[in-house]
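F.,

This is the one I mentioned.
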């Protein structure tokens, strides 16, 4: 079977996509955000306030409120630096950062403040003597529903010291987290799974570099039934990265855990979800189109799923 993109071309393509998204995001900055957070205390010197919109299957836009963090300042890696600007994104997508290389995703910590949890991602620069990272690397963060996942792609990163997600186990909102394999050797990807719908806001800091995603439980969910188009499951790595390359043109791809030990990436099976549908006929039509296009080497099927949704 002929792939749409070769493995050698994929790293450049992902970098190009990330750069394009950053350009569009800069052009479409939401001016009203400054007024909304002007009276809100923030952690240290705020670089970028990133607001997410939760997007149900119906694709109707919803806007989440911005959460505050508390002031703090020191020279430690866990603290913050200089202000650059504020901006917001919609439809569950946030991007930002600066082109870097040789970054280590050093740690992921959780700090609780009333009903809000602040998930902080810290970076260092690899070398003979590891130093804290001045600027956050280019990142893409995508929030999706049913189940409620947040997938991080960190470009210009070549190490993932935080891959055991130790601190996330103490979260009251996080159910699971796992590392994602990618053919791009200059990108780190991982997914955080929440127990239910969450309201989200984010901040980017520099000197030292840090991303802070603040989450709080959203409206009480109700049971609903949806239909997912998905691949068979595979052990960590396996064929999933190849499936992602074949299906790169699809908009709603995400990797989900089929079974295994929560927060343990290595002893688990994962599958690629191609799309989520409210109507079974639409899901079956999509599955048929994919199977017809890619032949026997890539098969997807429709699975009925009882999920938590609004």
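My design for it:
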């Amino acid at each position: 079977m002929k792939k749409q993109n070769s493995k050698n071309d994929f790293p450049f393509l992902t970098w190009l996509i990330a750069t394009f998204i950053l350009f569009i995001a800069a052009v479409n900055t939401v001016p009203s955000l400054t007024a909304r957070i002007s009276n809100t205390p923030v952690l240290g010197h705020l670089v970028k306030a990133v607001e997410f919109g939760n997007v149900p299957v119906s694709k109707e836009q919803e806007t989440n409120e911005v959460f505050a963090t508390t002031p703090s300042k020191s020279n430690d890696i866990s603290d913050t630096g200089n202000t650059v600007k504020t901006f917001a994104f919609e439809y569950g997508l946030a991007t930002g950062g600066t082109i870097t290389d040789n970054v280590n995703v050093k740690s992921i910590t959780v700090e609780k403040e009333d009903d809000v949890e602040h998930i902080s991602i810290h970076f260092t620069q690899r070398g003979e003597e590891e130093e804290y990272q001045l600027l956050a690397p280019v990142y893409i963060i995508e929030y999706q529903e049913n189940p409620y996942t947040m997938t991080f792609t960190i470009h210009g990163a070549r190490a993932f010291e935080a891959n055991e997600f130790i601190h996330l186990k103490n979260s009251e909102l996080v159910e699971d987290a796992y590392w994602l394999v990618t053919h791009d050797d200059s990108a780190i990807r991982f997914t955080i799974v929440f127990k239910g719908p969450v309201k989200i806001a984010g901040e980017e800091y520099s000197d030292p570099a840090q991303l802070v995603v603040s989450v709080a439980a959203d409206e009480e969910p109700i049971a609903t039934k949806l239909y997912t188009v998905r691949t068979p499951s595979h052990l960590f790595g396996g064929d999933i990265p190849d499936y992602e390359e074949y299906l790169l043109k699809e908009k709603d791809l995400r990797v989900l855990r089929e079974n295994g030990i929560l927060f343990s990436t290595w002893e688990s099976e994962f599958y690629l979800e191609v799309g989520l549908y409210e109507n079974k006929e639409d899901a079956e039509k999509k599955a048929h189109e994919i199977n017809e296009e890619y032949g026997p080497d890539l098969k997807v099927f429709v699975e009925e799923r009882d999920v938590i949704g609004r």
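Confidence is low (pLDDT under 50) at residues 1-10, 19-48, 51-75, 83-87.

Talk soon.
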